[in-house]
Amino acid sequence: MNELTRGHVADAAAYFGRWLEFRLGAERVPGVQAAVLHGDEVVLSVAHGVADVSTGEPLTDGHLFRIASHSKTFTATAVMQLVQAGSLRLDDRVGELIVELASSPIAAVTVRELLSHAGGVVRDGSDGDFWQLDRAFPDRAELLQIAATDSAVLDRNERFKYSNIGYSLLGLVIEQVSGTPYRDYIVRHVIEPLGLTNTGPDLDEARRADYAGGHTALAYADQRIPIEHIDTGAMSSATGLYSTASDLVRYAAAHFDGDHRLVGADAKRQMQHGEWKIDGTEAEYGLGFEIVTIGGRRVLGHGGGYPGHITRTYFDPTDRLAVSVLTNAIDGPALAMATAAIKLIDLARGSEPDPAATNDGAIDLQSFCGRFATVWGVYDIALLGGRLYQLSPSLVDPTVAPTRLDVIDGDTLRIADTAGYGSRGELMTFDRHPDGSVRSVRGGSGSLAHPFDEFRAAIAARTQVTLGAPVRP
Predict the structure, then answer these.
(1) Residues 71, 77 contacting (CB under 8 angstroms)
(2) Which listed residue, 98, 237, 320, 435, has the most CB atoms within 10 A of its CB?
(3) What is the pLDDT of residues 128-143, one digit of tens each?
(4) Cβ(76)–Cβ(288) below 8 Å
């Protein structure tokens, strides 16, 4: 595999941004915000769609999102800072650290077990309808009541058992050990050292107008309606934080190899080591991070599900790569979108440049790129790693069976490699306007395709497609 370069990431990020715009409509999601970072540079920061369906306000890359369980990675980082300082041990027990839980069913659960979701602790308590806004999120007293009564569900270290209550208790541990309220500690020791001006520990009333609206799902209704933003009380350390995609990739960079702004190398190794297999998946969980392999790339990160917002961030600490996707719907496809970004980057990385790309710029490969449509559907031509590909934006994974295109001349491509039922070996010919822009493309079963926006306008003006009257811009 080729070494990952800035050019690979830039190519993939540029196409990823355009692909997201198409997927937004296909998935009927109000809005999506995304960022890609490589090394110390944010290569892409983009937003598509609306912040609120009730107002139609355009979404920007500065709108704030509730990042929910991303909060766990911030909490785990804070815990490891205290461990590094000698103020806390991973083997310390909950009952020793939180006096109210000294005789509780989970008194023997350790900090390490809470971090890795191995304590057997209840997920959200016996009544978790604060997630549906039936009532407020638990305050400290209610959190301690849950922990003291119905918190022990499985034996310790029996298996991975995800627990928001467990990570909420870690917030209390941080308060107890540091002598500082959890929210203040996170700001002072995690957020401010990285200069993350659009990240905070919970709902900030002074910035309420800056938040992207959350929205209901389409599974139970034809239309989405907004969901109110609320504070998460004593569960901030599990699910309360807000951020933007660009802030999140910059935060992820602090967990790259060699970056010691937040925690040292030993703490990183412990956090990024798989402790437990996550049942039903190929993923593992470390101390605050999920670990998954996408293609051949091992990445870490976390997702988040807050009422109305679904989010996902991945990073590769070795190649110093980070991707974050934030959606403002409770059924938003952030996971699939972030996964697609990683796959596009690795498609670019694995490409061998077309000789035309290195021929002193005699042929501009970008001049072939664009989104085109026929009655049968839509395809993109994208430049990735010095190679042209035909990709389908209609697919959740645009890298499935990519069609590799070879340059013949300034107006002709050859379909060099495609799926078995494709038009392998055939030509794609480009008809151009005098300024060089594409008027149409003949290829793929010999069909004539037109630029997407022009074709969409033409099809909108028709009531029927009839014999001898093809759709033409």
Answers:
(1) no
(2) 237
(3) 999 999 999 999 999 9
(4) yes
CA distance 186 to 245: 18
The superfamily CATH assigns to domain 31-347 is DD-peptidase/beta-lactamase superfamily (3.40.710.10)
The CA distance from 21 to 39, in Å, is: 25
Exposure b/e, 59-70, CB count within 10 A at least 16 = b: bebebbbbbbbb
Output the six-digit token pair for 455: 């074709």
Sequence ranges of the chain with CATH classification 2.40.128: 355-460
The whole-number pLDDT of residue 436 equals 95
Q: What is the DSSP string of 214-231?
A: EE--SSS-SS--EE----
- DSSP codes, 20-61: HHHHHHHHT-SEEEEEEEETTEEEEEEEEEEEETTTTEEP-T
User: How confident is the model over 287-319, as pLDDT tens digits?
Assistant: 999 999 999 999 999 999 999 999 999 999 999
Distance between CA 96 and CA 279 in Å, rounded? 30
Q: Point out which residues pair with 406 in neighbouring strands.
A: 414
Question: Closest by alpha carbon to 347, among 306, 380, 301?
Answer: 380
405-428 residue pLDDT tens: 999 999 999 999 888 788 899 999
The residues of the chain that CATH labels 3.40.710.10 are 31-347
Token pair 């959200």 is found at 124
Q: What's residue 444's pLDDT?
A: 84
How many CA within 13 A on the CB side of residue 194?
Answer: 28
**To which residue do tokens 């300024």 refer?**
435
Q: Which spans in 150-233 are helix H?
A: 164-178, 182-186
Residue 303 phi, psi dihedral angles, 5° rounding: -110, 175
- Model confidence at 150, in pLDDT bands (50, 70, 90)? confident
The helix (H) or strand (E) run that includes residue 315 is strand 309-316
Q: Is the pLDDT of residue 181 over 70?
A: yes
Q: pTM of the full predicted structure?
A: 0.96
Catalogue the E-assigned strands of 193-289.
214-215, 226-227, 242-243, 276-277, 284-285
The angle at the Cα of 124, spanning 120 to 126, to the nearest 5 degrees, equals 95
SS3 of 335, please? helix
Tokens of 44: 């892409």
